[in-house]
Amino acid sequence: MDPTWWLAYLALGGVVGIFAGLLGVGGGGIMVPILTSLFALQGFPHDTLVHVALGTSMAAIVPTSLASLRAHHRRDGVAWPVVRFITPGILIGTFLGTFLAAHVPTTGLAIFFACFMAFVSMQMLINLKPAPTRTLPGAWGISGVGLGIGGISALVAIGGGSLTVPFLTWCNVALRRAIGTSAAVGLPIALSGALGYLINGWGVTDLPARTLGFVYWPAVVLMSAVSFLTAPLGARLAHRLPVGMLKRIFAFVLMALSVKMVVTVLSG
Question: Which residue spans traverse the membrane (predicted)?
């Protein structure tokens, strides 16, 4: 692999790690469109272009989520009872979601990703969030919510922050604690999603070298090496910087990257 791509994956990992710790997101909203463009430039097969980007993103989110989780835990920012109850649904929903994604064409996945990111971006821009007028549901209710969050997260390879944080704040969980809890929830999403994409891509022909299933391991290793170090920095910044303003900037970045992703896929 050309050293130029090494630098691209390392830089992407650094940016993803900071946003993972800062906003409680896994970074898939950034990784998937950029990886799609990088893979297209390297001549990866068009039919599995987005599938490999999704699987690679999920695998790379694992160490990023772990680092972000540890950083938020040190600041008592994780509601562990919520993590315990939501994890079973998350694992099942994410794993099953990868099987659905494996049967959706590349163009369909790209359009769904872009539409979902447009929704997430608008949510951030107008600061749309339900009024915190209720408490958390019981264990079964939380697990059911996890099932839905996991399923959607698998289709767009996100750590679930754009869904978990609004749900928790709606249930009267403080924003910073919701972000920390979302970071912890991102770990089972990433583990289950990575396993699902690995299984679904197993045996698929015409995949790039050094790809296992739908996971391109050189990108995973290089991105993870940096994101694991920068995620704690993002978590520290979350307690010092105006998160609301940064979320709006992040929203514009997501929209631009999503549009670029669709253009890349449609022109392939």
Answer: 6-36, 48-66, 78-102, 109-126, 138-171, 183-202, 214-237, 249-267
